[in-house]
Amino acid sequence: MAKTLVAYFSATGTTGIAATALAEAAGADLHEIQPEVPYTNDDLNWRNEQSRSSVEMNDPAGRPAIGGEKVSNMEQYDTIFLCFPIWWYVAPTIVNSFLESYDMHGKKIVLFATSGGSGFGKTLERLEDSAPGAAEIMEGVMLNGEWSKDGLAEMVKEYL
């Protein structure tokens, strides 16, 4: 039987709320991608070129360290719904760190994001090299605003 995982990174909590609702609607397991060093408000100040998030996003090869528990049984998942905020028109580089931490061969990875105003931008192309061997990596939808559980459940059917 196919199993689904919702893995998410959420620096401020917004994406975490959306990912939790998505996991409930999909009947999926939930895993939070936690940075080894949590982000502060100053770290997330995109107007400051010296802020941690600005420095990380200006180095596409950089890989922030992941803390917290790893997914101990990644091999059991066929589909991964990967949720994150959009930073500078792409996924935060900690999402690359997550993908590179596991063998993604044969897995279907569907991207879901939150954003204050932009779409996926170049997210897909920036993540593809981090999941070699994945059966498929595709854009899902932006999870901005309010979603009903029924609406989310109906929406995820097309990705399973």
| H and E order | EHEEHEEHEHEH
| Main sheet specs | 5 strands, parallel
- The side-by-side strand order for the widest beta sheet comes to 2-1-5-6-7
How many extended strands? Answer: 7
Q: What is the helix content?
A: 25-40%
Rounded to the nearest angstrom, the distance between the terminal CA atoms is: 12 Å
The coarse silhouette is: globular
pLDDT < 50 runs, ≥5 residues:
none
Rounded to the nearest angstrom, the radius of gyration is 15 Å
Helical region count? 5
Mean pLDDT reading = 92
In terms of DSSP E residues, the strand content is: 15-25%
Structural class: alpha/beta
Summarize the structure in short.
The chain has 160 residues and is an alpha/beta fold. Helix content is 26%, strand content 21%. Helix 4 (123-128) links the parallel strand 6 (108-114) and strand 7.
Provide structural commentary:
The longest helix has 13 residues. By secondary structure, the protein is an alpha/beta fold. Strand 5, helix 3 and strand 6 form a beta-alpha-beta unit. The strands form 2 sheets. A 5-stranded parallel β-sheet has the order 2-1-5-6-7, with helices on one face. Strands 3-4 form a two-stranded antiparallel ribbon. 26% of the residues lie in helices and 21% in strands. The protein is globular, with a radius of gyration of 15 Å.
Summarize the topology.
Elements (H helix, E strand, L loop, with lengths): L3 E5 L5 H13 L2 E4 L1 E2 L16 H6 L8 E2 L11 E7 L7 H8 L7 E7 L8 H6 L7 E7 L6 H8 L4
Parallel strand pairs: 1-2, 1-5, 5-6, 6-7
Antiparallel strand pairs: 3-4
Helix pairs in contact: 1-5
